[in-house]
Amino acid sequence: MLAEANLDELLNEALLLTTELSTNAVEHARTELDIEVTADQAGLTVTVSDFAAGPVDELTVGVRNRATDIAEVAERGRGLLLVDHFASRWGTTYLRTGKGVWFRLDRSDRQEMASATSAPPMSVDPPDSAGQSAVPSAGAMNVLMQTTPDPYAEDPLPDFAAGLLNRVAEMVGAAGGVVRLDRGDGQGAQILARYGRQPRAGNDLLRVPLAVHRPYTGELELDAAPTAYAQPLAVLTAERLSLHLENDRLRRADVRRQAWLTFLAEASELLAQSLDVELTMALIPQLVVPRLGQWCAVHTTDEWGRLRLAAASHADESMLPQLHATLREAGPDSVQARLREASRNGTRTALGGPMEGFAVPLIARGQRLGTLAVGRHQRHRQDPDEIAVLEDVARRSALAIENARIHAERRRVAQTLQQSLLPPVLPVVEGIGFAAEYVPTGGDVDVGGDFYDVVPLPDGRWLVVIGDVSGKGVQAAAVTGLVRDVIRVLAGDGKPLPEVLSRLNETLVERGAGRYCTLALAAVGPGEGNRLDVGLHLAGHDRPVLLRSGGGPAAFVGTGGTALGLLDAITSPTEQFTLDPGDCLVFYTDGVTERRRGRELFGTARLRDAAAPLAGFSADVVAARLRSTAINFSVEEPRDDIAILVLRNDAV
Predict the structure, then answer these.
(1) In this predicted model, which residue has the larger pLDDT, 200 or 111?
(2) Taxonomically, which superkingdom (predicted)?
């Protein structure tokens, strides 16, 4: 518009005043705005309108009734002061949708002002007769207000602050100046920018605080008298600098929050990887120190509600004995009392000296597990963000401890239940050797369906049993216990093995909940000489491996039958054979043969080949060697239970 009207000489004033009115509209109205520009040969008129209700009087009263000293102008009227100074005319307008401020710049007024002063546009006008700085030129004001940080600099604030300080110091004729900033990081106030000599303390020192939010604090100092324009120019410069300092604070706060989120994610991942209670509690202080505090202590609550120190850490390892001693001290004002208060009330509690810090309760799923105590750093105290992160760490730690405890309880229950399904010890029988190996799957937290047993028969023989119930977990364990008890009862009553299998099948069909079972039963008793007579029955189970001590290859024996629990009627062929002294019969479950290495299975042929060299060894050695061979076949955890039962003729 100015170019078309040949009003280039009004450019600086027009830009400066339009910027001020636009800034006021954005800052105070916080709505969209309209800028209307009208130019003719005589001058320029600009109207800035917003869409917020309310008067403009609070912005204009300080200008219309201003005193000689500009420092008396209202806080929110300094922008209009520039309008009042440079504009030929200005005023306000009111519309149904909002309000506006307009100004007029006439070419004749600009020519008169240019002839009244010889100062260049980018410099301060010469001092007046009283020795005070005269009115700065519009060009200098425009350059001051348009100075911005370098958007591509890694840290643009020092250069930006130095540029602002240099310009305002030249405009007010200051001999020196400094900008100090304290970011609240424990390093105290630091010099962000300096101009000329160090400002001298005295009446002529102009000091303006920076309008920044905590933890930032700072001030602008100029070695200049607070003259008519020096004070508001310093304030305007401080406000402009404060705006970018606030941006820096928000940016750093955002980066810091992102770092905290990353820290919490990594802490959660580490805590989730451990399902051991003691290891989890030992890991918590290592995560906290020194990131969130100088020291950290984890206390857990026992069944009587008493706190017990579970783990502790200190940034200075030499201070650990003193930390432990302080945590053990009793008394109404001791750390122990504060910890009990935090645990009892379920709220964060401040710790007094000498170990200042916070105690945060450990609560998971509504249960109070203990406390997490963290000591303050020597340089600074935790800010609200750090305290919030600390409370978040406490929640995640409590959940990790509770999960580890649940896992430990589950493992204990699984082990107890599994042990109840297996004989505590195998019987010691003269002339007969028994040995067994059992490897549960699922890291001891799931009950498998594999079991074995050795039961005495009324006729003096022994019944060797190995079986596998389909599935895992409590239901499989219940069916396994049912199968084991039915076999013991029926075999103890002297029932023939075919009848035992038939009745067991009926029981599983009625009460097995859809699960089936494979069994291998062998009735073993003394035969002619030192031999053992064996009557073998297979109900859908893999055939055992027979090892002859006198030589010959290992071989599978037995005839397959029907698995139990699937059909109303079953077949269970009987195979009779003898074991000479030193002979072994190896029973196993499919956890051995189906041991997987990639797509390759261990298989029955590999089992037979692994057992062949063990002919002549004791039952314990055979069972242990086969277990080791099966386990070492793959680096993966077993996907199914592994059970091996060895029967050997130990007659000499």
Answers:
(1) 200
(2) Bacteria
Q: How large is the C-alpha radius of gyration of the chain? A: 45
The gap from C-alpha 337 to its chain's centroid, in whole angstroms, comes to 30
Q: Smallest Cα–Cα separation from 359: which of 403, 302, 303, 309? A: 309
H or E segment to which residue 500 belongs: helix 497-511
Distances (CA, A) of 453 to 366, 394, 426, 480: 44, 48, 8, 12
SS3 592: helix
Tell me which H or E stretch contains 141: helix 138-146
Number of other residues whose CB lies within 10 A of the CB of residue 303: 5
Structure tokens at 372: 């997490």
Tokens for 49, please give them: 């309108």
Q: What is the pLDDT of residues 385-441, one digit of tens each?
A: 888 899 999 999 999 999 998 888 888 887 888 788 888 899 999 999 999 999 887
Q: What is the mean pLDDT of residues 303-323?
A: 88
Contact status, residue 96 vs residue 33, Cβ threshold 8 Å = no
Contact at 8 Å (CB) between 550 and 508?
no
* Contact (CB, 8 A) for 28 and 59: yes
User: Does the structure show a pLDDT above 80 at 516?
Assistant: yes
Taking the C-alpha atoms of residue 563 and residue 560, their distance in angstroms, rounded to an integer, is: 9
Q: How many helices (H) and strands (E) does the chain have?
A: 16, 25
Q: Which amino acid is at 635?
A: V
Residue type, position 397, single letter: S
- Provide DSSP, 196-250: ESPPPPSTTEEEEE----TT-EEEEEEES---TTHHHHHHHHHHHHHHHHHHHHH
CA dist 75 to 255, 424, 488, Å?
Answer: 33, 88, 96
**Considering all CA atoms of the chain, what is the largest pairwise distance in Å, rounded to the nearest integer?**
139
Q: Which of 564, 500, 525, 486 is CA-nearest to residue 647?
A: 525
Under 8 Å between Cβ of 545 and 645:
no
- What the block records as the tokens of 229 is 């324009």
Residues shown for the chain: 652
Q: What is the pLDDT of residue 75?
A: 41
| In contact, 383 and 215? CB cutoff 8 Å | yes
H or E element: which one contains 58? helix 57-64
Using an 8 Å Cβ cutoff, are 516 and 566 in contact? Answer: yes
Q: Identify the three-state secondary structure at position 462.
A: strand
- State what percent of residues in the chain have pLDDT above 70: 89
Per-residue buried b or exposed e for 340-355, using 16+ beta carbons within 10 Å of the residue's own CB: bebbeeeebbebeeeb
- Please report which residue ranges of 546-644 form alpha helices under DSSP H: 590-593, 603-611, 619-632
Measured between alpha carbons, how far is 505 from 539 in angstroms, rounded to an integer?
A: 10
Both tokens of 53, joined, read 């209700």
φ, ψ for residue 111, nearest 5 deg: -65, -40
Question: Measured between alpha carbons, how far is 97 from 23 in angstroms, rounded to an integer?
Answer: 19
Q: How confident is the model at residue 283 (pLDDT cuts 50, 70, 90)?
A: very high
